[in-house]
């Protein structure tokens, strides 16, 4: 009690904190739970709340970005395998498309092991081309076949599909018979009936054999080829353009009957259309119709095959010694001097020369040579409208040579590889009438 009566000093530091709190606009109070003086300041509380909210937003945003990055990385990792698998899917779709298209035909689908077995391990090679090799084979029932093994590295998938889908629908005595095909991601093969006498190109290069056969047999071959092309143009559900008619694409059976082959560049279109849309030149130099690389001449159509056939006829005449002469002193045989000139013009001049001599054509060989030459010259007229249809060609070949009017002199047009880059045959047409057949749009042998 004495202390209370006397008194003692007391220091309250919290009062100083309260003074500071009041200066900032706060209100001083006591927190019983923490046994300390606290300052209740609204501005400070809002500042702390904002800082806390910013921290939370930052954490959430960072987490979202992290998740997004992980998802992107996973997607990229999975994307490449998906693309790779899609190539296999595309291949399977091609096969399914072909199988569906040909389900009503007798074309057989073989495995690669079947192909290897029927060729005895690709033992006997018949020939080599820019798109693969041809081997002799035998099916399980003993039938001889020719197996065309395609080179996958040349990206010929579209040509393969095109050939199978096109020729698999065709059944004509003058068109090669496709017996089957094989497809996988690395190997593609076509199985045809075997042609023991090779190609017309082989025959024309064998002077002894062509001499033995004679022009009368050559005329029969020419007629057979014309029948085959006429069938492609008018005998099928859709009009089919071969677009690569040449001697090496005409095969000969054991009786030298011709069969048109190699439909890798074929294009089909509706009969209601007079022309076909093309985006690139296709065919073989020397046989390509001028309208395929010169837009102002005309449209690509069945007359383009007629032009190629005409060049084939002229080669049959000019490459055969039995075309010896419209008379004994004149020959259609190519010579060193004629090779320097435009060959069709040279043949035309020979025909005119014989007309001027007024010689009567009593010899059958002379008559056949003249007929083949005149029909060939009509077929290669520059304007497609001036060329006969293949049906008319057949009539001319069966008819009398004197009934064939003398054709105009052919005009020379040269084709250079540089012209291949021109959009030469972009022809307006009704695309709704396009054939359901898969069509090739690239070029070859340019």
UniProtKB/TrEMBL annotation:
Spell out the family assignment given in the record's similarity comment: Belongs to the protein kinase superfamily.
Q: What is this protein called?
A: Uncharacterized protein MANES_14G105100
Q: Which SUPFAM superfamilies match?
A: Protein kinase-like (PK-like) (SSF56112)
Organism superkingdom: Eukaryota
The family database entries (PANTHER family) matched by this protein are listed as:
RUST RESISTANCE KINASE LR10-RELATED
A Pfam family it matches: Pkinase
Q: Which UniProt keywords apply?
A: ATP-binding, Glycoprotein, Kinase, Membrane, Nucleotide-binding, Serine/threonine-protein kinase, Signal, Transferase, Transmembrane, Transmembrane helix
Q: Its principal location?
A: membrane
């Amino acid at each position: 009690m004495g202390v209370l009566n006397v008194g003692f000093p007391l220091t309250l530091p919290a009062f100083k904190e309260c003074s500071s709190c009041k200066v900032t606009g706060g209100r001083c109070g006591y927190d019983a739970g923490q046994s300390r003086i606290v300052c209740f300041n609204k501005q400070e509380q809002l500042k702390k709340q904002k800082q806390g909210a910013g921290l939370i937003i930052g954490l959430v945003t960072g987490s979202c970005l992290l998740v997004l990055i992980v998802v992107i990385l996973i997607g990229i990792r999975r994307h490449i395998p998906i693309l790779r698998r899609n190539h296999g899917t595309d291949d399977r779709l091609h096969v399914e498309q072909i199988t569906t298209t040909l389900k009503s035909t007798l074309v057989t689908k073989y495995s690669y092991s079947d192909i290897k077995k029927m060729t005895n391990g690709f033992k006997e090679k018949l020939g080599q081309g820019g798109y693969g090799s041809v081997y002799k084979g035998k099916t399980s029932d003993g039938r001889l076949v020719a197996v065309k093994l395609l080179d996958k590295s040349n990206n010929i998938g579209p040509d393969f599909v095109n050939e199978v889908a096109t020729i698999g629908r065709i059944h004509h005595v003058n068109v090669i018979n496709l017996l089957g095909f094989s497809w996988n991601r690395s190997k593609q093969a076509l199985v045809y009936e075997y042609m023991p006498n090779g190609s017309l190109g082989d025959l024309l290069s064998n002077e002894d054999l062509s001499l033995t056969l004679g022009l009368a047999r050559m005329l029969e071959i020419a007629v057979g080829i014309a029948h085959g092309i006429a069938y492609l143009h008018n005998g099928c559900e859709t009009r089919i353009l071969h677009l690569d008619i040449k001697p090496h694409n005409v095969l000969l059976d054991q009786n030298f009957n011709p069969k048109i082959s190699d439909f890798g560049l074929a294009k089909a279109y509706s009969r209601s259309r007079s022309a076909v849309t093309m985006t690139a030149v296709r065919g073989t130099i020397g046989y390509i119709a001028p309208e395929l690389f010169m837009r102002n001449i005309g449209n690509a159509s069945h007359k383009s095959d007629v032009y190629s056939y005409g060049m084939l006829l002229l080669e049959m005449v000019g490459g055969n010694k039995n075309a010896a002469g419209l008379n004994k002193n004149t020959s259609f045989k190519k010579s060193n001097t004629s090779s320097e000139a435009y060959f069709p013009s040279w043949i035309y001049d020979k025909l005119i020369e014989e007309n001027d001599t007024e010689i009567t054509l009593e010899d059958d060989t002379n008559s056949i040579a003249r007929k083949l030459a005149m029909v060939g010259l009509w077929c290669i007229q520059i304007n497609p409208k001036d060329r006969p249809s293949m049906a008319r060609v057949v009539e001319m070949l069966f008819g009398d040579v004197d009934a064939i009017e003398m054709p105009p002199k052919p005009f020379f047009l040269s084709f250079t590889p540089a012209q291949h880059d021109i959009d030469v045959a972009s022809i307006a047409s009704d695309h709704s009438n396009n054939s359901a057949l898969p069509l090739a749009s690239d070029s070859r042998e340019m």
